[in-house]
Fold this protein.
Amino acid sequence: MSKHLKEHLLNLLKQEQKRRLELQKRYCWLQHARPNQHPPAGDWRVWLILAGRGFGKTRTGAETVRLWVQQGLYRRIALIGRSIQEARSVMVEGESGLLACHPEHERPHFEASNHRLKWKNGAVATLFGGDHFEKLRGPQFDLAWVDELAKFRQPQALWEQLLLGLRLGTNPRCLITTTPRPLPLIQNFLKDEGTVVTQGTTFDNAANLAPTFIQQIIKQFEGTRLGAQELYAQVLSERQGALWQRSMIRYQQPLEGQEYQRIVIAIDPATTHHEQSDETGIVVAAVTAEQTAYVLEDLSGRHSPADWGQRVVQAYWRYKADRVVAEVNKGGDLVERIVRSLDPHVSYRAVRATRGKATRAEPIAALYEQNKVFHIRPHTLLESQLCDYIPGISRKSPDRLDALVWALTDLLLDKENNPVLKVWQE
C-alpha cells in the first residue's frame, strides 16, 4: 500500500471518528443538558417546567421522553399539544422534537395518519390536541407530556380527563412544559406537594440563542410585565388590595457605567427554629449614586441561628457590603450577638419597628411604583410574598418582605430629612 493511500485512509478514519464523537455528544443529552433540564429525583407525580421563551422546554420534554422510553420505564405515552397540529409540528417533527433528538438508528416510526409514534422496543406515543380533550376518554397511559398548557382554551378540563387516563404501571407521571400564565390550574400545581416545579428564564439558554435575539428582547421587553412573564417565567397574578402588584416588579441590571454606592444586608430574624417556625428574612440590596435601588439576592429561609448567621457574614464579604441591618423587636440583641461572634468586623446597625408593618411597607411599595427599585433577576418566593401581602388581611408574617423593607429603607429613605422615618428607626 502506497504512502499516499495510507495517509488518505488515515484521514478518512479520523474524519469518521470525529463524526461519531459529534453524534455521541449531540445525542448524549444528560452530558450537556443544564442541571435544571435534568429529570428531578424523588417521588413525584408531575414535573412542571415553567420557563421563558427559548429556555429549551421542548427539547427538555422530548429528551426526557426519549430517555425514559430507552430505559424501559414507560410504554404508553400521551403527547398533548394545544392542537393536534401543534403536537405534530412542535413535539414530534419540530427542531427540538422527538424525531430530531433521536439518532437515526433509534428513531421511532411516525405514523402521521394515526397520530402515533412507535419505538422498536414496543413503546407507543399517541398525539392529542388540548382543544379536543374529550378524545382522552378511554385511552390509558403511564406517561404524558403536555406542551404549553397555559395556552390551552380549557386547561382544567384537559387536566381532569388526562388524570383519569394516567393510570398504567406502578408510577404514572406527567411532564408539563409551558410558559406561565396566571391560571388557577398553574397556581394549584405550584401548591401541590406531588408536583416538582422547575423555573427558568430565557437567559439560562443564552449560549444557544442568537446574540441579536438576546439584545433585541432586552431592548424591547426588559422591565415590562410581558417580559417578566415571557422571559423570566413569572406567574403574574394580581391580588386586589395587595401593596405590590406584579406590574410593579421590574427586572433590570444597572446601566453601563453605574456603580453601587452602598450595599446593605437586612435581616428579619425568626424567634424559633422548628418545622413550623417563621422564616428568617435575609435580603441583599444596593443603591447607585442616582438613587436607584437594586435587589441583589434573597437568602431567606427556615434557618437555624447559626445557619443564617453564616449566610449573612458570607454575603457581607461576598458583596463587600457596607452594613448589616437587623430588626431587634423579635430577636433582641440576638442578631448582633451571632454576627459579632462569627466576625467582629461586620458593620452592624439595629432598627426597631415602632409602627405597623403596612406603615413601614407603603413608602417602599411607592418607590416600586416610581420605578426606583429593580430586581436584577427573579426572586420568586420574595415576589410572591410581596404580591400576596394585603394590609390588615394577611395573617402570616411576611419575613422576606420585612427584610426587603428594612434594606430599602436604609438605602433610600433619609432619616434626617424624612419625619416619618424618624419614628421607624432607633
